[in-house]
Design a protein that fits this description.
Blueprint: E1 4-7, H1 12-23, E2 28-32, E3 50-53, H2 59-66, E4 71-74, H3 81-86, H4 88-109, E5 113-119, H5 142-161, E6 164-170, E7 173-174, H6 187-196, E8 202-204, E9 210-211, E10 214-215, H7 216-228, H8 231-234, E11 237-241, E12 247-248, H9 249-260, E13 267-269, H10 284-290, H11 298-314
Helix pairs in contact: 1-7, 2-4, 4-5, 6-9, 6-11, 9-11
The structure holds uridine-diphosphate-N-acetylglucosamine.
């Protein structure tokens, strides 16, 4: 019987968490429908987990996946701000119904703790940097609203049913296995691959928008630390998971261009609807509650990421 369940185990962040648990010798069940995840993300450890191919929108399948589990990492979602603007209903059902199904499955199965992949987009465009968890959320596009609804549901299930829910607000996570091929791909994955292919990336807006880009292994360590922390430190709470530094897209473009040996300037296009302008986190709450440290820097993360995409292209 598996002790841990990872939803979205074949996705970018979910596969990293799954792998880290397997490498620690834990028993893991993974749940994914391969809508945005990929089987290759599980290569090397698929035979060491109990894998269930299923959809978060299928309440019965989610309920079965929760059986016998002690801790859930709920990473499964349909991400992307622009996707949610184009087709709000599809991402609504995956993100809100899906999260509700996980909570209900957990309640029925007596799951002790849920780590929830929340989003820094919850802060919206309000003034005040760095972002602190006590700020009033002001999500703009449907996707941040959906992720925020999940947070409120998480807190409710702690207060009402005593499930130790912990929300980790991810700030632009990047790294190996992030899908570069979808129109909704994260900017790092997209730009790295385009540059390696010799194609000129497009920056939406003037490129002065900033993000607290965070390498994926930092997010994994936040998850594992929060999973192991005493309930009185984390249950029912929300934490920023970030690096604590802001980089503009123009700066990021330069570093990526150097790493990939790409010599052309970007194309500048119109700004993207629903985008936030800036993002920068205060990470002291996660530091204090469970000893989180972003040990892999922005630059080192970028180096590892570009190296990985380079290897992928060779294969
Ligand atoms: C990202 C995550 C989202 C997460 C949020 C908060 C992705 C796909 N989205 O949203 O899940 O909740 O951070 O941490 O990882 N851009 C370009 N050119 C491109 C693509 C993007 O200029 O070809 C720009 C966008 O307009 C935006 C910035 O790059 O200003 C970042 O975009 P993106 O990577 O899509 O992430 P977020 O929207 O910040």
């Amino acid at each position: 019987m598996a002790r841990y369940l990872v939803t979205g185990c074949a996705g970018f962040i979910g596969s990293w968490i799954t792998q880290a648990l397997v490498e620690r010798g834990e028993t893991v069940r993974g749940f994914d429908n391969f809508e945005t995840g990929h089987r290759e993300n599980l290569s090397g450890f698929l035979d060491r987990i109990e894998f269930i191919e299923g959809d978060l929108r299928d309440q019965a399948a989610v309920a079965r996946a929760c059986q016998g589990v002690e801790i859930i990492f709920h990473q499964g979602a349909l991400p992307s701000v622009p996707r949610s603007i184009k087709d709000p209903r599809t991402s609504h059902t995956a993100n809100i119904d899906g999260t509700f199904h996980v909570l209900e499955g957990a309640r029925a199965a007596g799951v002790r703790r849920i780590l929830y992949a929340a989003s820094s987009s919850a802060y919206g465009n309000q003034p005040g940097f760095p972002r602190v968890e006590t700020m009033v959320p002001m999500p703009i596009a449907p996707y941040p609203v959906q992720k925020m609804a999940g947070e409120l549901y998480m807190r409710s299930y702690w207060q009402v049913y005593g499930i130790e829910t912990v929300c980790l607000r991810y700030f632009n996570i990047f790294g190996p296995r992030q899908d570069p091929n979808s129109p909704y791909s994260g900017v790092m994955a997209k730009f790295a691959l385009q540059m390696l292919h010799g194609q000129q990336p497009t920056i939406f807006g003037d490129g002065e928008q900033g993000r607290d880009f965070t390498y994926v292994e930092n997010a994994v360590s936040a998850n594992l630390l929060a999973a192991a922390a005493p309930a009185e430190k984390v249950a029912g709470r929300v934490f920023n998971v970030a690096c604590g530094q802001r980089h503009t897209l123009n700066q990021t473009y330069k570093v990526l261009a150097e790493l990939t040996g790409f010599h052309q300037p970007p194309v500048y296009g119109p700004p993207r609807t629903g985008d936030i302008q800036n993002s920068l986190a205060d990470i002291s709450a996660a530091r204090e509650a469970f000893g989180y440290e972003p040990s892999i820097s922005f630059e080192e993360g970028l180096r590892r990421t570009v190296e990985w995409y380079r290897q992928q292209l060779k294969q």
